[in-house]
Amino acid sequence: MTAIRQNLAGVAAVVADLSSNRYGNLTAVTGPTNLHGQRYALAHTYDPQTAT
After folding, report:
1. Which residues of the chain have pLDDT under 70?
2. Sheet holding 41-43, edge to edge
3. Is residue 33 left, alpha or beta, with left meaning phi > 0 and alpha meaning psi from -120 to 50?
4. CA neighbours within 13 Å on the CB side: how many for 14?
5. DSSP tag of 13
6. Which of 8, 28, 39, 46 has a Cα-to-Cα distance from 16 of 20 to 30 A?
7. How far apart (Å, rounded) are the C-alpha atoms in residues 26 and 46?
8. Measuring CA to CA, which residue among 27, 32, 2, 33 is closest to residue 16?
9. CA–CA dist 2, 36 (Å, integer)
């Protein structure tokens, strides 16, 4: 999965982008655009030896 798209009544489609690493772990989330055109971003890191 690379994006979540939701269509809301009277509003353009809302999209959140997702990224994952080669193990399928979630590594980044970029949320939908707010009223000011800004998007929040979260980055996740994992232990390099166990990938958890």
Report:
1. 1
2. 3-6, 14-20, 26-30, 41-43
3. beta
4. 13
5. P
6. 46
7. 10
8. 32
9. 24
31: its two tokens: 């949320």
Query: Alpha-carbon distance 7 to 25, whole Å?
Result: 26
State how far Cα 36 lies from the chain centre.
19
Per-residue tokens: 13: 């489609």
Residue 28 DSSP SS3: strand
Tokens at residue 41, please? Answer: 């971003």
Task: Report the pLDDT value the prediction gives residue 36, as an integer from 0 to 100.
Answer: 95
pTM of the model: 0.75
Predicted pLDDT of residue 51: 83
Break the chain into its structural domains and give their ranges: 3-43
Give the whole-angstrom CA distance, residue 33 versus residue 8: 14
